[in-house]
Structure formats: C-alpha cells, structure tokens
Design brief:
This protein is an alpha/beta fold. Helix content is about 40%, strand content about 15%. β3 (about 80-85), α4 (about 90-95) and β4 form a beta-alpha-beta unit. The relative contact order is 0.10. The structure holds 3-methyl-2-oxobutanoic acid and zinc ion. Zinc ion binds near residues 24, 179, 181 and 214.
C-alpha cells in the first residue's frame, strides 16, 4: 500500500540508523562476502535493531543481486535497502531484488560535484538534475520508500545541491542523504552544510536528512555527529567503520556517542547496544578484518584498565575512569585473562564472545585439551591463539 508518510513510522526524536556494512563496507578491498555471510550479518543487524540495512548493489553482479534478495526475503523487522545508480536498469534490478521485503527501500544516487560531473559522468549540471529526477520517479514505481544521494555532496556547490535536492524531494524522494564521499569536510563545515540545506530548500520538511561520511581524515564520526546536531535524522554507518579506503563512520561510535551524551542531542537511536560487540566480532570474523585493540567501544582494550592508578580508581568507583558500562555494549563485566589456570567455562565463554561455536561436546573437549597444552607453554592465551586452536572446526555464530 502506498503511503506518503515521510519517516515511515520513525518517531520525530528517533535517530534512524542506516547500516551499510553489507554494501559500502563490502566495497573495502578484500572484504567481499558470500550470500550466506551477508544473511548472517543482516540477522545480527536486525537483532541490534538497525532501522535500515543496505544489503548491496543488485546491479553490480548476479551474486550481489542474489544476496540482496536473500536478505530481503528473511529480514522482517528492519527495512532492507538496495543501491542503484540513477539508471532505469539499475533501479529495476534493485526493485526486483527487494520484491520479497517486508519493508524495502531503493537508494539511488548520482554525483553532483563539479569534478565528478565533468570528469567522470561527462554530464552538464542540467543533465544531472534531469537524471536525478527521473531516477527518483523510476524508483517510485517500485516503492514509496526512495532515498536519493548527491554523490560527493561534500565538494558540491551549495546552490546546485539545493536545486537538485528540491527537485528530487518534489519527485518523491523521502530521504535525502548527503555524502561526504571522499571524507574532505571538517565537522563545523559539514554541520553548517546540513543547516544551510535544511533552511534553503523550500520543501526540506518533506524528507528526512541523512548523512554518509567517509573517514579519509579520521573525521567521519565527528562530521556525522555535527550533522545530527544540525538536524540530520538518519546516519549511514558501518560496523567497525568498515568501508572504502579509510572506511565509513563507525556505527558503534555514533550510537554510543549519542546515547552517552543525551545532554547534547535531542534524538536517540533504537539500537540495542548490548548487540554491538557480537556484531563487531561477527563482521570481523567473516571479513578477516581485525579490530585494533584500542578501537573505541569494540576494541579489546576499550574497557581494559592497565595502570595501577586507574585500576585503583575503578575498583573504588567505576565511573572514575569509565564513561560507559562494558556490559551495555555487549562485553562481559570482567576481562578474563586466559592462562593455564583457567577452566573450561572461561574458555568456552571467551570463544562464544568471539562468535565461535563448536558442533559437539567432543569438539569442545578436544579444543579445551589443546588449549591446556598451549597454556603450559605461554603466559597468556590471546584471541588469535583461540582462533588458531579451533580454526578447523569452528563456525561463527
Ligand atoms: O560515499 C558515497 O558517496 C556513497 C554513495 C553511494 C552514497 O557510498
Ligand atoms: Zn560511501
């Protein structure tokens, strides 16, 4: 049934979390995923209460079409989105892939920066506006839930951006996403851009403003938060900040920054934050992209205390050195150090935290015996050792 509601059920003070791990994250060199792997990650994102899951780019390959279709067919509680260039054939491919979705969205894009229009698209600005409007109209033939992105908005002319966005909103785009495609913007500049766009575009209240920031200068999260302070109500992000080049804005950092600093934000996400660490482990296990130990929220040391002064402070009162609770993002309270004195329970718990499952009791017993042998030779058993110990028979939850 067609509905013209702008936010598709999301409350006004809700920050919509749009996860693109399976699309932009997968564009990270070496991170490509099979259909089954995408479905596993999508289910975890659904469990985490992500609002929109961008499952892939159906026109990119038959494999990606099948992956988006498989995700669309199984996910019930999150909207499933497919990316499409502003071409009728791409949009039709995305529409086909999303046919089985409970709630589907087509995300179409075309570049608007002078360098992209002239050197890549070889189109005039007028042609770009016309193509953008046609793309939204084609997408609207498949669904009311259409998102439009002016690629490289971060380097586009403000007046031209206003012109394109006003036209696509009039054509029926219900989300307009502003990408800083090459991670060029500064936080105060990007926040100002969102403010200007919302003020200058006459029909801006008919669409949700979204942002999509890349991390080339390490500013993707800061730019996204600045945009939220200036009225953006959807953030596009990835688990572990996976993505092209230096990656995308990290989901866990955005969600926890907004949740922890509610004194600063007039919105919050619906994310079940206790599912963050399991999601991080799953994505890292599937892609083989390790998470750096000092990575905020999901790094192994994010809630570890090493120096005596800090340990003393935390033992007296956790908030002396902790602004979030480890348990709230999915860590267990204590960071267990595994060694020769550890028991079967600690061993099994740690493997499960890493998203590793073994098929049978015999497999657990054999792995535990190998662990004990290794612990006799090493002071401490690290996660990499555990992965190596079970690499032949492990499955990832
Ligand atoms: O970075 C980018 O501009 C994109 C668009 C397709 C949204 O990924
Ligand atoms: Zn991107």
């Amino acid at each position: 049934m067609k509905t013209n509601e702008v936010r598709f059920g999301a409350a006004k003070d809700q920050l919509i979390i749009f996860d693109t791990t399976l699309r932009d994250g997968e564009q990270s060199p070496g991170a490509s995923m099979t259909k089954e792997e995408k479905v596993r990650i999508a289910k975890q994102l659904e469990r985490m209460r992500v609002d929109v899951i961008e499952a892939g780019f159906p026109a990119a390959s038959n494999g990606d079409f099948e992956s988006v279709k498989a995700v669309a067919d199984v996910i019930k509680d999150s909207t499933v989105c497919g990316l499409a260039r502003a071409l009728e054939k791409d949009i039709a491919r995305a529409g086909e892939a999303l046919r089985g979705a409970n709630s589907g969205r087509i995300h179409t894009f075309i570049a608007t920066s002078p360098i992209h229009m002239e050197k890549k698209l070889r189109m005039t600005p007028d042609q770009v506006v016309e193509q953008a409007v046609k793309a939204v109209q084609w997408a609207r033939q498949w669904t009311d839930n259409v998102e439009f992105s002016p690629e490289d908005a971060g380097r586009s002319d403000l007046d031209f951006l206003c012109r394109v966005l006003e036209a696509v909103i009039a054509a029926g785009a219900r989300t307009v996403n502003i990408p800083d495609t090459v991670g060029y913007n500064m936080p105060w500049q990007f926040g100002g851009l969102i403010k200007n766009l919302r003020e200058k575009i006459p029909n801006s209240d008919q669409a949700v403003f979204s942002v999509h920031c890349h991390n080339d200068l390490g500013l993707a999260v800061a730019n996204s938060l600045s945009a939220v302070l200036n009225g953006a109500r959807q953030v596009e992000c990835t688990v572990n900040g996976l993505g092209e080049r230096a990656g995308n804005a990290s989901l866990e950092e955005i969600v926890m920054a907004v949740r922890t600093r509610q004194d600063m934000f007039s919105c919050d996400s619906r994310i079940d934050t206790t599912q963050i660490v399991p999601a991080s482990r799953l994505v890292s296990g599937i892609t083989g992209f390790a998470v750096q130990p000092n990575k905020a929220i999901v790094g192994a040391n994010a809630f570890a205390h090493e120096s005596g002064i800090h340990q003393d402070g935390v033992l007296k009162h956790r908030e002396t050195y902790e602004i979030m609770r480890a348990e709230d993002v999915g860590w267990s309270t204590n960071k267990m150090v595994l060694g020769k004195h550890s028991g079967r329970n600690a061993f099994k718990t740690r493997l499960k935290e890493l998203g590793i499952e073994l098929d049978s009791e015999e497999a657990w017993n054999a792995a535990f015996a190998r662990f004990k042998d290794l612990a006799d030779k090493k002071h401490e058993i690290f996660d990499e050792d555990l992965h190596a110990l079970v690499s032949d028979e492990a499955t990832f939850a």
